[in-house]
Automatic annotation (TrEMBL):
The lineage of its organism: Bacteria, Bacillati, Bacillota, Bacilli, Lactobacillales. Transmembrane segments: none annotated. It comes from Lentilactobacillus curieae. Pfam families: Y_phosphatase3. PROSITE patterns: TYR_PHOSPHATASE_1. Belongs to the protein-tyrosine phosphatase family. InterPro entries: Prot-tyrosine_phosphatase-like, Tyr/Ser_Pase_IphP-type, Tyr_Pase_AS. This is Phosphatase. Gene3D superfamilies: Protein tyrosine phosphatase superfamily. One of its GO terms (molecular function) is phosphoprotein phosphatase activity.
Length: 247
């Protein structure tokens, strides 16, 4: 049950060897703006989420501010703040067009190498490895910045590649109705070619996540090198994550 919160789900249930990721700890989502009273009650009282991590940029946050609840700890980590050399935003695609696949691949490259992404993912992963109180993390669609964050968490505790990609691609199913609404709203502002490009951009592709990992590993030398050399996480990070989130 998600009460209609777009692209919302727990990371729980994925397996690492004989262990299972706890279902009541980490949740990923699309943006949390204009939540209903029932949705807010669900997050606050049923799931007992105490922390919100917003990975969106300043303009996104200003246009669609998050719904917060009493006692919640709201934290901004602008993952793509430094990544300004791509046309992956919907607005730029409407005006500039271009190859969406290439733009998305470039975005995922920036998620691996830009200073804001490296600093942001370090800050986020440090936070979840220091405190296991229930947390929801999100960006605009909950698919790219959020998708990489979820993949990093799952990989760090030893979840298989097959499960990591299954979780990542689940976004295409969970965003279907929201994407249809976005395209409907843009119907009078864009050409059919532009709408097709936007439709592609609103979905995830396994190639994108693979490109993120390939770029990160190529730069660092290996996944552990990425965690400890690029992100500069402390040496107990993976062990602590397994202890906190696996059962």
């Amino acid at each position: 049950m998600t009460l209609g919160i777009t692209n919302f789900r727990s990371l729980g249930g994925y397996t690492s060897g004989a262990s299972t990721f706890k279902a009541d700890k980490l949740f990923r989502s699309g943006q949390l703006s204009e939540l209903s009273a029932d949705q807010t009650e669900y997050l606050e009282n049923q799931l007992k989420i105490k922390r919100i991590v917003d990975m969106r940029g300043e303009d996104e946050r200003a246009q669609f501010p998050d719904t917060q609840w009493p006692g919640s700890d709201y934290q901004v980590i602008d993952i793509l703040k430094d990544a300004t050399k791509n046309n992956a935003s919907l607005g730029k695609m409407i005006t500039n067009g271009g190859n969406v696949y290439d733009n998305m691949m470039l975005t995922y490259e920036q998620l691996a190498v830009s200073d804001s992404a490296i600093n942001g993912y370090r800050q986020f992963l440090t936070s979840v490895s220091d405190d296991d109180s229930p947390l929801v993390f999100h960006c605009f669609a909950g698919k790219d910045r959020t998708g990489v964050a979820a993949a990093l968490i799952l990989k760090s505790v030893g979840v298989s590649e097959e499960q990591i990609y299954a979780d990542y691609l689940k976004t295409n199913e969970l965003r279907k109705s929201a994407n249809e609404e976005i395209l409907k709203g843009l119907k009078d502002q864009a050409t059919s070619e532009q709408l097709e490009s936007i439709s592609v951009a609103l979905n995830v592709n396994a190639d994108y996540l693979e490109h993120f990992f390939d770029t990160a590993v190529k730069q660092a030398g290996g996944f552990q090198d990425y965690l400890y050399t690029t992100l500069k996480l402390d040496e107990g990070f993976e062990e602590r994550m397994r202890e906190m989130y696996l059962k």
